Amino acid sequence: MKKALLFLGSLLLASSLFAQKTPESKSGWMLGAQSYSFRLFPFAEALRKIDSCGLKYVEAFPSQQIGGGVTGTMNFTMDASTRQAVKKMLKDRGITLVAYGVVRAKDEAEWKALFEFAKEMGIRNINSEPDVKQMPYIGKLAQQYKINVALHNHPKPSHYWHPDSVLAVIGNNPYLGSCSDIGHWVRSGLNPVACLKQLQGRVLGMHFKDLEEKAPKTHDVVWGTGVCDIPAVIAEMKRQKFKGPISAEYEYHWENNAPEIAESVKNFRTIYTKGSIK
To answer: Which segment of the chain is annotated as a signal peptide (predicted)?
Structure first.
């Protein structure tokens, strides 16, 4: 038992030291990956790939198989023993679960179960695209549990594709805001920097992408090599003093995209430090 505790302590220390060494951690940015980037693989394998990219944070999505000898999916309805197994999986890999989504719940009771899951798993942000009619009780639950609900923007015609629709429902509740997907804004014909400025102070988390072209039908490319103006986005995040999870969501070359995510992470950190890449 003593050896196990010492081992766990070493893992936590190593994770803490890693976080301190990443440039973006100085700003309170938790750069990780949305496990949907590795949707062809179970969550356990996704964690290994995320680790290989130099990242220590993860956003889980509900329908991914867990794997690693654990049956079931990452759905918030998982039982207590499965939750404990997932927690151990995360600790063993030294990765922190900071966000969960994109997820929806059908009614207030189910939303409460989702918040209970988030509380137990230590999740900071629930990323969702809820029905507008649900927002009053979602806001109350977010304040009660002190867990953020960040409204995600799929491309138009999804309801939250434009910042206007996010601002229209979040009011002054500090636990409600935006999960800003900069790539989907570009797919919708919007400027990501302008959108971030419109949402100033209400950006709770991000789905980070760079795209090959400004078009609805396009694909991800290594960050800093596409049309999303990553240096300007990072500069705006700094200006706003953004703090929170940033999930790499790379929806291309599904069978083997870890090398491109790793290169994206390297470019992100170079841009964060120097303002540009060569």
So the answer is: 1-19
d(CA 20, CA 8): 19
For 157, the token pair is 């015609």
- CATH for 28-209+242-250 (3.30.70.1450, 2.40.30.170, 3.20.20.150, 3.40.50.360): 3.20.20.150
Rounded-to-integer distance, Cα 58 and Cα 246, Å: 9
The SS3 assignment for 40 reads: coil
Contacts of 238 (CB under 8 A, 6+ apart): 27
Q: What are the pLDDT digits (tens) for 78-106?
A: 999 999 999 999 999 999 999 999 999 99
pLDDT digits (tens, 9 = 90+) for 114-169: 999 999 999 999 999 999 999 999 999 999 999 999 999 999 999 999 999 999 99
